[in-house]
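> call design_seq(struct)
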C-alpha cells in the first residue's frame, strides 16, 4: 500500500477484473527485507488458485490459460 494500493485493494481489483492470470509484484521478500510494503502472503491469502514458481520469469500460451483466475507468484529477481 505504500506506493500504490494495498493487498486487500489489489485483491478486490482482481476480483472485479477477473483476469485469467495474476502475477503479484511490489511485495516484501527476503531479497528486499526493508521494502516498506507487505509480503505476498497478504495478497495470496484467500485467493483460490495460487502457484508459487521457482523461477523469476514465466511464459503463458493462450491455449494454457486457466478457466478461472490463477495467481502465479514468481521468485524475486533482485
Amino acid at each position: 500500500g505504500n506506493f500504490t494500493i494495498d493487498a486487500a485493494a489489489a485483491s478486490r481489483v482482481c476480483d472485479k477484473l477477473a483476469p485469467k492470470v495474476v502475477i503479484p509484484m511490489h511485495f516484501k521478500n527476503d531479497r528486499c527485507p526493508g521494502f516498506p510494503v507487505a509480503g505476498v502472503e497478504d495478497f495470496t491469502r484467500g485467493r483460490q488458485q495460487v502457484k508459487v514458481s521457482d523461477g523469476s520469469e514465466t511464459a503463458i500460451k493462450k491455449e494454457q490459460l486457466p478457466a478461472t483466475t490463477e495467481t502465479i507468484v514468481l521468485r524475486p529477481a533482485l
